[in-house]
Amino acid sequence: MDPTTTPVIDITAVLLMTCSGFSTHSTCPSTVGFYFPPIDALMSPVVSHSLHHALNTGHYTIWPLHQLKGIMQYDSRSKTNIDGSLKNDWMAYNRVFKTNFPEGREEK
């Protein structure tokens, strides 16, 4: 990279980050986050970011990669690393916000 050239910022990336930033602060946890259905089905940035504001621990990024299976996440309640999943975040969301969204209900 040549330090004498002016850096270029892709406007598409700026728009995606701006839209994602606005949508993560929605009060509706079903709000679309990435505007791409396959990714929106795997991750919910609104649920993760709402937990970030409520718990003030973890859930720091717009891209909640910890919601994907196989990616470990530190659980402050059990003080261990757990396999992350979207279901875990939904269960935490229901517990913290005293809601009962079906995505986070325990299986019986």
What is the strand and helix layout of this fold?
Elements: H1 11-23, H2 37-42, H3 45-55, E1 72-75, E2 80-83, H4 86-97
Antiparallel strand pairs: 1-2
Helix pairs in contact: 3-4
Major pleated sheet: 2 strands, antiparallel
Distance between the termini: 56 Å
Structural class: mainly alpha
Average pLDDT, rounded to a whole number, is 85
| Helix percentage range | 25-40%
> What string gives the helices and strands in order?
HHHEEH
Which regions have little confidence, pLDDT < 50, spanning 5+ residues? none
Question: Strands across the major sheet, in which order?
Answer: 1-2
Describe the structure.
- The chain is mainly alpha-helical and 108 residues long.
- The chain is 39% helix and 7% strand.
- The chain contains 4 helices and 2 strands; from the N terminus they run αααββα.
- Strands 1-2 form a two-stranded antiparallel sheet.
- A hairpin with a 4-residue loop joins β1 and β2.
- The N and C termini lie far apart (56 Å).
- The model has no long low-confidence stretch (mean pLDDT 85).
Characteristic terms for this protein:
2 strands, 39% helix, 108 residues, 7% strand, mainly alpha
Summarize the structure.
Helix content is 39%, strand content 7%. With 108 residues, the protein is mainly alpha-helical.
